[in-house]
């Protein structure tokens, strides 16, 4: 904050202004005192000008120091920012380096595993090669046999033709075996279907026999009931015939008694009719026959 010049001069030069000697001669005139005052004022102004110039120099120096400090502060801030960025970049580089080292380590481990796998594969291939070589050595006998067969054959001139014919025959055999297998499967399926049909028909016959047995039982029961009711009906008819015969006998006896007693029958009187008596007689004879 800039200083007030008045306060500054009052602070630093107040003692000097107040200790100026007073004129000792009482008889000095007013003009002389005025000149002295002017001389003092000039001295004071010169002193003030010198002080002001010195103050300005100091202020300029202070402002320069302030600017220098501000510039240094900005430089330090920039350096701090750069250093912070350097640290961050260094941390990032370290992190990337660690990641790269970890990736390289993992890659090296994978390479080692790949090398082990390839070594195992090479070992397996070498063993396979040995097996194939042994097979080739054993197959040499067959190769000689094929050569002899070609030499003794008029149909084939090369081993390739013989092998092709053999492959064709083997394929035909496989097809025939496949057809035979399919035929056996169809036969087995039909056999199972026939067995299932026979079982179903047997179950159906058993069911029909059970139903027939049930119906026969019902028929026998119905016949027994019919015989029972027929017997009951015959008994009822026999009983009714006897009762009718008895009634006819009673009517005939009554009519005979009526005639024996000299009785007669007028048109206004109701009695036993001759036809009824005849019918009763006939029924009596039928009842006697029964």
Automatic annotation (TrEMBL):
- Gene Ontology CC annotations of this record: cytoskeleton
One Pfam family per UniProt: DUF4200
User: What stretch or stretches form a coiled coil here?
Assistant: 34-135
Domain (DUF4200) spans: 34-151
Per UniProt, the keywords (alphabetical) are:
Coiled coil
Query: Origin, by domain of life?
Result: Eukaryota
Q: Entry's InterPro entries? A: CFAP_domain-containing, DUF4200
Q: What is this protein called?
A: DUF4200 domain-containing protein
């Amino acid at each position: 904050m800039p200083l007030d010049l008045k306060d500054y001069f009052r602070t630093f030069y107040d003692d000097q202004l107040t200790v100026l000697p007073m004129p000792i001669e009482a008889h000095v005139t007013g003009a002389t005192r005025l000149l002295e005052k002017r001389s003092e004022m000039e001295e004071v102004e010169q002193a003030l000008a010198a002080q002001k110039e010195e103050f300005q120099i100091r202020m300029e120096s202070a402002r320069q120091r302030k600017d220098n400090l501000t510039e240094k502060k900005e430089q330090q801030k920039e350096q701090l920012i750069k250093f912070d960025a350097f640290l961050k970049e260094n941390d990032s580089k370290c992190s990337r380096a660690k990641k790269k080292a970890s990736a390289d380590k993992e890659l090296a481990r994978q390479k080692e595993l790949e090398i082990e796998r390839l070594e195992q594969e090479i070992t397996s291939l070498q063993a396979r090669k040995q097996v194939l070589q042994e097979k080739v050595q054993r197959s040499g006998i067959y190769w000689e046999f094929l050569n002899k067969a070609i030499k003794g054959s008029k149909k084939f001139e090369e081993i390739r033709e013989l092998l092709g014919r053999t492959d064709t025959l083997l394929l035909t055999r496989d097809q025939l075996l496949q057809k035979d297998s399919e035929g056996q499967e169809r036969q087995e399926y039909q056999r199972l279907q026939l067995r299932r049909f026979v079982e179903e028909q047997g179950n159906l016959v058993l069911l029909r026999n059970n139903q027939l047995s049930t119906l026969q039982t019902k028929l026998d029961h119905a016949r027994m009931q019919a015989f029972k009711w027929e017997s009951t009906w015959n008994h009822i008819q026999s009983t009714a015939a006897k009762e009718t015969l008895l009634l006819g006998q009673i009517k005939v006896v009554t009519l005979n008694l009526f005639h024996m007693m000299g009785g007669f029958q007028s048109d206004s009187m109701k009695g036993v009719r001759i036809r009824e008596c005849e019918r009763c007689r006939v029924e009596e004879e039928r009842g006697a026959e029964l």
